[in-house]
Amino acid sequence: MAASLTSLRVSAQVSWTYETAVTGLSGTTANANSFQFAATTTNGTGAGTTADLIYAVQLTLAGAASTTVNLASAPVKDFFGSNIVMARIKFLFVWLTNITSAVSVAFGNAANPVINWISAATATVKINNNGVFVLGSPGATGYPVTSATADQLKVTNNDATNPATVNLAVVGSSA
Asked: Does a structural domain hold residue 29?
């Protein structure tokens, strides 16, 4: 029996209260507001906000080490030990936790990189300690993955000495 991704919710929020003292007024003047994004997928590979695969892992990289996640031609395994072969990426989540004291990691620049989410094959996104990178394209197209030419995501520990603990989640579809 095949596994199904029956429930997935991705959300991001920035909320604030911004205050200032105004001459001639008692108290402060404030602006309280927020920006919010939320997407919920249904199981599948068709039109709309669908996804049927998730790869989620906590990686520990030694100083200056790197790892490459292959989403198609040498696929990773899901929670149940089945190969995950992604045709499309819908969401990427990379968090350099503060469990370790690594200064930063670089995300991108694999040998056969998925590059349609970033400008060039050699480009990377720098994520500082306790920083997070979230990217989403929940529609039917997402970010296409091409076996053996554009199917790799690489994480490199930029800290030569300290290990890096990275939480990585890739949500996608098999078609």
From this structure: no
